[in-house]
Records
---
Amino acid sequence: MGIIYLWELKVISDAVGCSGERLWVNLLDKALHTFTQVRLLLMATWADTLERRYACVSKEGVSLQNVDRIDALLRILKRSEDDEKGRTAFFIDSANVPLMWCSSPDRLARMLKKLAGRGAAVARIHEEGLSNDVWQLLSVVADVTLCLRVSSDRTAICKSTFYTKNGKRITKVESFKVDDQCRVSCSPYMEEKAVILPEKAKADSLEEMVLPFDIGLQLSESELEAKRNVKLPYMAAQTQEGITYKFVVLLLILHELHKSISFEQRKCISESCELLIG
């Protein structure tokens, strides 16, 4: 963020858990060294609240104005066009409010560009409730966009996009901190990429999962052969010997039954057994 200078239109998009207020004020403090006038157009924050929080907003050359209607914003635009006192930097907090006033997002984009045409405009906007179409429009008309978010490890991240003089698009992702005096420090940030296993590796891991007998074992060839020859009870039940054993048990049970049932019942059971065997 260190190479981003104050010119034309900048849009700061902040998110839940990653406020852009201090970064916005940091740019405001820088603007005092560049522009003859710095005007704060407040639509979501009261002027006295900012004055209590930040000393720089009370400095000479800074004017604060609460804007609560679209016509008030239009009058400011008209006066700025007629003003010949020099370059002015406008700081808007937040652009979500005039977005609700305007009949279309294009109108808001034109208004921001007109303000930036007087010197510079820095608009803060909140990600909550902001549609992707509106953000894409603002990204096109803005000279610089700063997208803030919080990473999974609670690090504040800024993705900045801007253009060089020859039109080359530059995108940077940095972690950043803003202290109580609104001084910014930042460093390059690398996203941790999830490890994606190839399909063969996934299949191999599944095969290992269905062989719990091998978990943690380093078996030799002879040990593996011995393991394969182990006859477990549930395996024996599926062999020919196991089936024959079941049949013998069944015959013994029938023999005991024959002692206590009638001739007709024995005849019926015998016919059933012949059907099973045949």
Note: The longest helix spans residues 240-258.
---
Amino acid sequence: MQNGEQPRDRFSKFLTQVEAEKRIIVFPLNHVPGIFAFEEGRLTCMDVVSGDGAWSFLASFIKDEEIGNVVSISWPQFASEKGLKANDEVSFFKQAGDHGNEEEQGPWKKFRIQVRRQIRLFGQNIWGDLMV
């Protein structure tokens, strides 16, 4: 799934091997327009809800010479407990702030997360939601 085709309140990608091993996920800033305002060195806290609980992730903004400005999301406990692997599809859905302010640009962001994994069943590749 390409991020350019997604609504502005959602962003997703397939985890790379490096991201799965390091328990981070990196998005080029142009894949998350209107969700994050880039400010190099700034940290943003992400309150994330899943089907079985609430999590806190930390997003940092980095200027990378090869791919440009990126948002790097650290989620070591979540990635470890859920057993995330390369090629899992991770989607974040922006949630309204405490006061319903969709334009909230503060250091706290609220999201719902969905993780999907491809499995092979009876010779067919199918995608299923991980219980997260």
Note: The chain has one domain: 3-99+110-129.
